[in-house]
Amino acid sequence: MRILDALDYDRLAADPKILIGFSDLTVLQTEIWRRLGLVTFSGPMIAGAQFSKLADADLDLYFATLTRDEPPPPLGGDEARVVLAGEAEGPLLGGNLSLLCHLAAAGRLPSLAGAVLLLEDVHEPPYRIDRMLTALRLGGHLDGVAGVAAGEFGPAIEPMLLDSLFVDRLGDLIAPIVAGLPLGHGERNRLIPLGVRVRLTTAPAQVAFFASGVR
Question: Backbone phi, then psi, for 40, in 5-degree steps?
Answer without folding.
Answer: -125, 180
